[in-house]
Specification:
It is a multi-pass membrane protein. This is Cobalt transport protein CbiN. It is found in: Cell membrane. By secondary structure, the protein is mostly helical. It is built from 3 helices and no strands.
Amino acid sequence: MKIATKNILLLVAVVLLAVLPLLFVNAEFGGADGAAEEMIKTIQPSYEPWFSSLLEPPAETESMLFALQAAIGAGFIGYVIGLFRGKASKSKPQ
C-alpha cells in the first residue's frame, strides 16, 4: 500500500472518529467539575465549598482560554519533538 493511500485512510479515520460521536450520541457534554459537584451533593448533602471563584468568565471566553491552553501545549510538544529529531539527525553520519 502506498504512503499516500495510508495517509488518506488515516485522515478519514480521524475525521470519522471526531464526527461520528457528535452525530450519533444524543447526550449532554458536561464538564467534570459539574459531575463532581453532583456526586459530592449526593454523597454528602451538607457539604459547603471552601471558597468560590472570584471571576467566572462567560462560557465562550472559558472555551477560548481552554483552546488556547491546548494549542500552546501542542506547540510546545511539537517543538520538543522537532528539537529531539533535529539533534538525532545531526548526530547521524551521512
